[in-house]
Amino acid sequence: MVAMGRWAFAFLLLMGVAELAAARVPNIDARGEASSGGRDLLHSRRLVMKKANEVNKDLIIAASEGNAKAIKKAIAGGADIESKHGDQEDTALTIAAHAGHLAAVKALIDAGANVSAADTEGTTALFAAAQEGHVKVVDALLKAGAEVNAQRSADGGTALIIASQGGHLPVVQSLIASGADVDLAADGGATALTLAVAGPHVKVVAALLEAGADPNLGNDIGAVPLHVAASFVGAGEAMASQLIASGANVDAATATGLTPLMVAARVGNVPVAMVLREAGADAGAEMEGGVKATDQICGCLEDGEGESACLEGVCGEASKKETVEKIMEILA
Ligand SMILES: *[C@@H]1O[C@H](CO)[C@@H](O)[C@H](O)[C@H]1NC(C)=O
User: Fold this and answer.
1) Cα gap 161→181, rounded to integer Å
2) Ligand 1 within 6 A of 116 CB?
């Protein structure tokens, strides 16, 4: 595990890099009822309707269990391949894709399932498979013509964004090879690169940068990937170096003037502060209220004894005396 203090996590939230609303694909229980509640299919008044509902139910159970044979049987028995299930109205294809059932997904595609079908949140089968890291299912859907850059209506998320957030490198590579737009942003402005950095998923960050992702795209409050990288002690160093090598602006400032170097000072991130300074980051930059990076160091020079020696900073977890001294040195 990469070291990330509680404050660093709070920082991610502050930077607007909170998790995308998780795409919920309802679990289907043994009776084919969406566990999120929903209607009791047996209450249908008309016998014909009841029969149709039952084969549709058979289809959804088969999809959720990954039973390709049963899928074919349900379709042959008159099931509507596009029938919707659960509160979010997912199709059999999305449910099978989410569960990673390749044979079931192929059977549904072969039977003519709409690979672009979206649920009430705009979640497609491709998004559901990408979220769970099912690369073979992702490939099957792409081959069948799934729209690689489809954005969810709920939050603007794409398959690439959700796969990057989850650190699913093979899926990310496959989506990029199929023409995914690496710079498409979700609502709020978070890109695949920002969310990969927030993982932190170093290899995904490298893959996205290699594919030409723009390291200077900020979100709605002006936070760029380098701000996020600076909050990670450990993985932050490699990510910051990669971002800078790809042209990241080391002095990028948010709407309030916060720079990556200030973030590194706040969390006591010595390696990232060094990388930033070596790349020419300005230690004298001021944010709102004339506050500089040195004012934001969190910790004491005398291990808490001499109160006057404590730097107030924007404190979360206080850095050790040694760390404070090193950061001071780097900022000097
Ligand atoms: C497939 O689903 C998409 C998204 O819901 C819809 O726009 C499209 O019309 C559907 N295609 C067919 C052939 O029904």
Assistant:
1) 10
2) yes
